[in-house]
Sequence to fold (368 residues):
Amino acid sequence: MLKWLETLPWFMAAPSITKLAYKTLQGSKNLAGLAHKGISTKLMEFLAPGGTPEVSPLQGELLHDLKKSMEELEKVDWQEAEQGIYPISQLFEAPWIEWARRYPLIWLDLPFTWDRRRKRNTRDIPNKINRQKYPDYYLQNFHHQTDGYFSDFSAGLYDLQVEILFNGTADSMRRRIISPLKKGLKNFQDRNQSTLRILDVATGTGRTLKQIRSSMSDVELIGIDLSAAYLRQASRYLNKRGSDIAQLIRGNAENLPFKSNSMQGVTCVYLLHELPKGSRQKVINECMRVLEPGGIFVLADSIQKEDSPKFETVLENFPKAFHEPYYNDYVSDNIEEKLSNSGFISIEANSHFMTRVWSAIKPIENKT
Ligand SMILES: C[S@@+](CC[C@H](N)C(=O)[O-])C[C@H]1O[C@@H](n2cnc3c(N)ncnc32)[C@H](O)[C@@H]1O
Fold:
């Protein structure tokens, strides 16, 4: 953790310097993401022309709106840190050295990704996996990534790939769940924080859990995901010597292995767009079931056509460039209705650049 940063005199005395450092970092990540994508696309056009996706160019007003939306995200991210919703040090947190070591692997892996895209080979996953353990929709190469979600190699590159995809804003977008989560947990403010249990569904490599940990040091954290490899990566990242242990469990979000009413908070980030429609409702129902009445559910996923019509071209391009078999269905799906079908109340939603965040409460009288 970079908490020690906050003890430095200049950090405490000169928030404007820290703000500048944050803006510079975001600006650099933005440029690095754009440069990476620009160069890799040119390379693909040259070396693997048959695999180049036919996406619509982003121009004029759309580019301007995207830039403005990204700036607004940055602004909120900084403001909420200043308000103490999470520590300012979290804005700088990332496994930088590990990412630097792994970055060349992304380039070395590109030809394999292009090949899968060109051949529309979306089921190229390791032979040795036991297919019985997974739902059919999961046995694919989401984003054309090597090994799908089934290897340590894939888990090692995932965070960096997502950060590049979103031009360095992925963590800022994930952080938008912290404020509604903390607000919802006020329903249990008479309890000791260490008795509160927060479950992150489809936790992947654990980045959301890490953000929650640094914002609420005492709560009990649990993460569940179908991928053993991603959970191993999460464990390496989260369960460092001297820190509280986050429990990581391999399991299906459609059938959560937890007792009803056993969690005070549930989060779920970037899962729904990778699920077929029926599974989305099942997952939301399960999140409802495991929450204690009064508990808070915070869901984050891609923006959708209805809330962000001006970004429709971006939403249409995404599944053309990456293998995202359920994305087109997801962007027109009615998530509020699904939350409400499950019995959630006080549903609120806000969009932050490419991410929409819903929060909802399990009603007190509901004892499922
Ligand atoms: C796009 S990743 C998001 C991971 C993480 N939440 C994040 O913010 O980066 C989707 C994750 O969902 C997991 N996943 C997909 N279907 C699942 C299911 N039915 N049950 C549990 N995890 C699932 C995948 O293994 C993967 O880690």
About this structure: Residues 15-47 form the longest helix (33 residues). The pocket of S-adenosylmethionine is lined by residues 135, 138, 149, 162, 174, 202-204, 207-208, 225-227, 230, 252-254, 269-271, 274 (CB under 6 Å).
